[in-house]
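User: What would this chain look like folded?
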Amino acid sequence: MWRRAFTLLDLLVTIGVIALLAAILLPAMSTARNQAKAVLCQNNQRALWQGIAVFVVDNDGHLVGNQYDPPNPTPSHRDWLRGDNANGWQGAPQAGTLWKYIHVPTVYLCPARDHATGSGTLNSLDLTSNGHFDYAIFLSFAGASLHNMPANATVTDPSAKVAVTIPTPYLVEEQPNSINKANIEGGHATSDHLAHNHFGGSYYVSPDGSCHFYIEPSTVSAVNYTATTPHAKSASLGTNCTWGWWDGQ
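Assistant: Here's the prediction, encoded as structure tokens.
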């Protein structure tokens, strides 16, 4: 019995339909993947904060130390990522004071980045990583008492000369050309920039443990963050300082 076979036209129509469906579905799938990575990044930051909160309980109400604290005579007051810095950035995060509380390496990494090379000499693309950590903490808050932390901060973009108030950023995701430079560390300075790899911005955790989304102005100039200190002064959050500096300001 004779049966009709597929013609070239039928095949072309089928291919066209498949191509059309792919064109419709692929962007949606890409968006879904990006959203999933954004959720995982927030979860990582919240997990790090939970570890820091336990650290605070164990250290008389003080937050973790930072980049300039490796020489501190008290081991728990040293760098949260590098400890005494004996092994440099390659020892992070295992050498850091937070590792005791959060000892899962992937929690210190943003899932939206490429961690394959881990050379520490990567470029400024928003999807690269040093392979050890992608998050940083504002330098001024090293060893600060949690009860002295400000609720809000002011962000000033010198290129636009506009100041806005946001919930105080504490633990942030840094842009790769900030966190992957020759001096690789987990301290966020005034000269550093936040990442832009999650829908044009990044997530950060405030001192109360809440997570926020922020799109930092894209500028070659430094974006300055300031807040009111315990003694009612205005101070930069990216100042190079050691354990407890904020409490005395």
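The chain has two helices and nine strands. If you want, I can go into more detail on any region.
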